[in-house]
Design brief:
The complex is a heterodimer of chains A (241) and B (340). With 241 residues, chain A is an all-alpha fold. Chain A is built from ten helices and no strands. Classes of the chains: A mainly alpha (241), B alpha+beta (340).
């Protein structure tokens, strides 16, 4: 299975919500880059979500994610997205649910000699569509938020390292990524890294600012509309993007 | 499609280990990323003083002037559509220079779009907490005089604002600070509305605090006016005097307990201030304060039509010393006459 590298960051930085718009672009390479970016942003959240939302899938969650994106690449699902009707994340989650449902139904048939299905499709459909309490949306959102921070932190590290500020990242990682009960004081951290407490303060400050910019950039790329971008930025960071 | 575009699992080196990114770590990151960043790093955030649905108040150090300040940063989720409007409101309140109104030092907009307001750091206790502390000290007896003085100081500050055409619109026990020496500072003017003369101002959204909001604030088409604040202050008086308590404590004024009869004028003041119909309330906070002051001094209040026996009783209580001296004099004179 080919392992794609991350798409170049310059692919869709210029305009807002370009990724989702580019999925329907007439220009094939643009469409392909957009799809790659969707994979980069959502492959892991989809797998994590399937694992939690569809326990019957068990260890096949990665396979479900893989087959989902393969199907999406073949033109299923994503081309039907209409930003006027739903936010992209919700649409994607519903597509994943339907895909997982089909996967389970297919698995059920296979286990029974490819004939009758003993897993009720109705029951699966109800499970897929019903999210009265927003649990499914929340599960998917949490998985997506974790992945978003994850890739943003990697970008942060790359950016700081490329600009010769590796130590800034070290301070950030030692303080902000430390478990709450193991988080050092500024003074302890300064002593450990042999810098001044003021440097710890200033570097943390500038690194967090950079991380915020990166996250907003990622949100901008992934959002299907200005409203979506604004909502996500406010909900995640309390800022206006 | 390019060969790499297969929907395969992306390169795992493009993300950090999930174990390093627990919910708690993400929660911490979100909290620090939400912290405001000020131009020129003028303000250094020291602590969070309070947080609500609409804003967070930080304790900060003004590096330029070397003093501690309080900075209120509007929550992005309720960011006004027109940030200029929010800043205009800050400018309005910034003009209110009164010792009972928290002064605004600076206001502006962060790079991320949120508005902020830098204020004096007011040291003291919110009225709500102050009342709880007092109740813990002695819940059966209340020094009404001290509480009436708080209400009077509040009225002074609010009347000043009304004079400048500003209605607070959110007076509540949480928005007033009581200093160590009993001084009162009115906080949180974020819901304030501008009025012109006696004209009301139409609210853009439902405001106020439950239990202290005037009926017109709960009506989206309602118009607020100084009488809106009169309503809230009436509720505050009722709360301070615990008139709505199921087991009312003994209220004392000047060290003497007040009977049920003596409290009727105070109840009438509250009733007039909190009338459903705004036109039935006191026309101004000053008129309300005058009645409160009259009650404190044992004079007649405009909100209560007393009967003749009540008037006599009140006059006797009001001039207790004089009546006592006069009575003593008459008794002595009578005794002298009898002795002769």
């Amino acid at each position: 299975m080919p392992q794609p590298s991350s798409p170049p960051r310059a692919a869709f930085p210029a305009t807002r919500h370009s990724l989702v718009a580019a999925l329907g672009d007439a220009h094939e390479p643009t469409r392909a880059r957009a799809f790659d970016a969707v994979v980069r942003l959502y492959w892991h959240p989809v797998a994590a979500y399937v694992r939690l939302r569809w326990p019957a899938v068990g260890d096949d969650a990665d396979d479900v994610a893989q087959s989902f994106f393969t199907a999406a690449l073949d033109g299923m699902y994503l081309a039907r997205f209409d930003p006027a009707r739903a936010r992209f994340r919700t649409f994607l989650r519903l597509c994943v649910d339907r895909h997982a449902m089909n996967y389970l139904a297919h698995e059920g048939r296979q286990k029974r000699g490819g004939h009758d299905t003993h897993i009720s499709l109705d029951a699966l459909e109800i499970a897929a569509e019903s999210d009265v309490h927003g649990t499914a949306d929340r599960l998917f959102r949490d998985a997506w938020v974790q992945h978003l921070f994850s890739i943003a932190i990697v970008r942060l590290r790359e950016t700081l390292t490329a600009s010769g500020r590796q130590q800034h990242y070290d301070v950030f990682a030692a303080y902000d990524l430390a478990p709450g009960d193991a988080r050092p004081t500024y003074h302890a951290l300064a002593e450990e890294l042999r810098i001044s407490p003021t440097q710890v303060t200033n570097w943390l400050h500038s690194t967090r600012r950079l991380l915020r910019e990166i996250i907003v950039d990622e949100l901008r790329e992934a959002a299907a509309s200005d409203a979506e971008l604004r909502d996500d930025a406010r909900a995640l960071l309390g800022v206006d993007a | 499609m390019p060969a790499h575009c297969s929907g395969s699992m992306p390169d795992t080196s493009a993300r950090i280990d999930d174990a390093a990114l627990t919910d708690a770590t993400i929660g911490h990151l979100r909290a620090v990323l939400e912290s405001p960043t000020f131009e020129n790093d003028r303000y250094e955030l020291l602590d969070t003083l309070g947080s609500g649905g609409t804003a967070t108040v930080f304790l900060a150090r003004d590096r330029w002037l070397g003093r501690d300040v309080a900075i209120k940063v509007a929550s992005a989720s309720v960011l006004p559509l027109d940030a200029a409007r929010a800043l205009a409101e800050a400018r309005i309140v910034g003009r209110l220079e009164h010792h009972g109104i928290v002064p605004i030092y600076d206001a502006g907009q962060l790079a991320d779009g949120r508005t902020y307001c830098v204020m004096r750091r007011v040291r003291g206790t919110p009225l709500a907490e102050w009342l709880r502390t007092e109740a813990a000290r002695d819940a059966s007896r209340i020094d009404l005089g001290a509480r009436l003085r708080i209400i009077e100081q509040l009225c002074e500050a609010v009347a000043f604002a009304h004079g400048a055409g500003v209605v607070h619109c959110d007076l509540s026990p949480n928005n007033m600070m009581i200093g160590d020496f009993g001084e009162v500072v009115v906080m949180d003017w974020g819901a304030a509305a501008r009025t012109t003369g006696n004209d009301g101002a139409r609210r853009r959204e439902v405001g106020g605090t439950r239990g202290f909001s005037a009926p017109e604030q709960l009506d989206s088409s309602g118009v607020v006016s100084p009488r809106t604040d009169v309503y809230a202050i009436g509720r505050l008086l009722e709360t301070c005097a615990e008139l709505d308590s199921p087991s009312p404590p003994t209220l004392t004024l000047g060290g003497r307990p007040l009977g049920a009869g003596a409290l009727r004028p105070l109840q009438a003041i509250v009733a007039r201030a909190t009338a459903f119909d705004a036109d039935a309330r006191y026309a101004s906070v000053s008129a309300f304060a005058k009645d409160v002051r009259s009650f404190a001094f044992g004079d007649a209040v405009s909100a209560y039509q007393e009967s003749m026996p009540e008037r006599v009783g009140r006059t006797l209580r009001r001039h207790r010393v004089l009546v006592g001296l006069l009575a003593s004099y008459l008794i002595m004179r009578a005794a002298l006459l009898l002795w002769r």
